[in-house]
């Protein structure tokens, strides 16, 4: 379809990637976001090969490699410091045909903003409603302004307003049962190997570090907690208490992190949705499939959405509504599978069934890497750019 105009609601990873892909397809694109300053949620993200391949196809491969971390190995360690398994990711990379790149979210967002044009994103535009006719769709903003195009893309995240319009009802987020602290620290061999993703496990908890650009580690610390548990006033003291007795690198990490720049997040997901599309309106990213981060696929799935949505519009002459239905068919089952697998893995990691979690720890001690890499490659190779 020629001369199409797209309205993208949300300037996060998925929205900006969609905007870049659609503009490269020759479409007119307008991007709106409710915030007055773009600040990505979370400090870092593991960008696996299926997400990187989308960026490669958009001409952003070199830029991604320059901000991503050199993750060449994967290591699981017990809370006391015993190495359970340590293996090279080279067989995985060879199988899927692309390096993974852990990356700081701010760096990734800035890369996408630069590629699209930072001045072309209209901030301070809070979408409050959607309307459409047979010929066009309109986003309506809190200040009374409107943006009308041939298609509206809801990239407005886990609290999506566009999703409520598409489904005709509100959705409830589901607490995954654990709290995640995350941030960035300078990379140091005293903390972890600078080319490895290192994960300490024990008591249904995790402490992890992975390399990102500019010689830093992205870290996260997971603790299963009741939803009602509130943060303590002294974050460092709380983490020292919750990870008391863990190996020395974790004690050093907690001592080194900056509480003012460390995020504390109650992890949620949303049950798989029955629809992603209503007429000329489509959902992408967390608006369509909000998942727990335990497979590292949330961001990658948003990028897959962007690629598939753009290509369904490019490859049909039956109209926008037909193209969006094809997009929905291509994405619903894939993302539902990711949500449910991530949920199952989150339960196993975080001790929902203590016996199952203990079995996992024991299996890690005999793991050579093949099972883990096969599970990751299976997820990657089911994507649109395998």
From TrEMBL:
Protein EC: 1.14.13.113
Pfam families: FAD_binding_3
InterPro entries per the UniProt record, alphabetical: FAD-bd, FAD-dep_Monooxygenase_BioMet, FAD/NAD-bd_sf, HpxO
SUPFAM superfamilies: FAD/NAD(P)-binding domain
Cofactor(s) the protein requires to work: FAD
One Gene Ontology term from the biological process aspect of the record: urate catabolic process
UniProt domain FAD-binding: residue ranges: 5-338
The keyword Aminoacyl-tRNA synthetase appears for this protein: no
A GO term for molecular function: FAD-dependent urate hydroxylase activity
Reaction(s) this enzyme catalyzes, per UniProt: urate + NADH + O2 + H(+) = 5-hydroxyisourate + NAD(+) + H2O
Source taxon at top rank: Bacteria
Pathway(s) this gene product operates in, as recorded in its UniProt entry: Purine metabolism; urate degradation
Recorded family membership: Belongs to the FAD-dependent urate hydroxylase family.
Name by which UniProt lists this protein: FAD-dependent urate hydroxylase
